[in-house]
Amino acid sequence: MPLREIDDIERLKKINAALISRVERSMEQQGNAFSLFQTAISLEQRVRTRTEELHSTLRRLEQSNLDLISAKESAEQANLSKTRFLAAASHDVLQPLNAAHLSVSALAEIQTSEEGRKLVRQVERSLETMGDLLHTLLDISKLDAGVTRPDICDVHLETLFSSLRSDFEPVAAMKNLKLKFRPVNAMVRSDRTLLRRILQNILSNALRYTRSGGVLVGTRNRGETMRIDVADTGCGIPDDQREAVFEEFHRGPRVADAELAGGGLGLGLAIVRRMADTLDHPVTFSSTVGRGTIFHIDVPVAATVTAHSMSALPDMQRPRGYGLFGTRVLLVENDPDVLQAMASLLERWRCTVRAASSTSEALDTLGDTAWTPDIVIADQHLDGGDLGSATIDEVRAYLGRPVPALIVTADPSETVIQAARAAGIDLMLKPLKPAQLRALLAHLLA
């Protein structure tokens, strides 16, 4: 019906309201659509901005990672360079130190006065302290740089204990202390050298901080692990120093005895912690101030070995005689001072010595068929780039028999250790301790 034919005012109002409402809804929908369109554009712009910011952040993060990798490589390289420097420096320093040690030992044997012997002992102690400090600093450097790789093998504890007993019994005797090792017939899985150093450092500390009583070393089987206990009757460790004792240059509490107060360098237990972590051998201790300390080292037990191998091991530790009279020694050493000092010491032991500084000189020495060596002692690094291990191989080939041999070197690197082991050659590190050298020579010749 046309609007002009409607004469009902109220009806017209309703129709008008409906039309206005429809128009308003239509406008709202258009407005909402436009608003949504604007919102979509705004969101797209914000997403683009955030994406660019994220890409920029990722690029900065990648660059930071590259910088960190570069810095890490530089730090590792610096650490390795430091280790190589310390190894080279220690080698150069240990050569004259070794010569001095051997010369003093030879001098000690010809001293007739008590005053002279006393002075010689003082010099020997100073030289030993210097050598121990250099070796310890080098060990810390290598462990921190991560270049020490354990050589895990079966270790016979009784043989290890026998070696430690021979080293520390004179120290205990000088202080009127008792040193006991409980017999044990067991094999463990460890690095023989590192495990020995751990026990050596703990024993050294135990004897240093004990004034009366003594030190006892024993073992307890704990299933898959063997617990090695080192118990002393020393001054003990206070509870507030339980962690501090494993820090570098931390020394035990001062005691009245001047010898105890001025003893160690404070590096022994720091080395113990690093070596134990490298081997994954937990080290703990219990202590009572004034009564003593017990250190515990937990080492994995080795797999069952044959009765033949177990019975053969104790034979290695039977006491050997020290008679070297008439022993023919081929000494290969390129350092004149060390050569002279070593030759002098061997001659004091009534050995017959022939010297060489290279492989060719050593072979020339063997041209005298009336003289053949009973043992060869060689430095590892010789003149002309020769290696002592290779020299010993050529000497053995020339003689046609595996003559006993010993490498003495100031280079403690794994390369040298592996070369000696592969050739079946014993190895000692400079500076040499004459008593240990003499015992090893007697053992090799027996």
Automatic annotation (TrEMBL):
Keyword Phosphoprotein tagged: yes
Keywords carried by this UniProt record: Kinase, Phosphoprotein, Transferase
Organism for this UniProt entry: Manganibacter manganicus
Annotated positions of the 4-aspartylphosphate modification: 379
Taxonomic path: Bacteria, Pseudomonadati, Pseudomonadota, Alphaproteobacteria, Hyphomicrobiales
E.C. designation(s): 2.7.13.3
Record has Transcription regulation as a keyword: no
Superkingdom classification of source: Bacteria
PROSITE patterns, per database record: HIS_KIN, RESPONSE_REGULATORY
Record field: catalytic activity: ATP + protein L-histidine = ADP + protein N-phospho-L-histidine
Protein name, UniProt field: histidine kinase
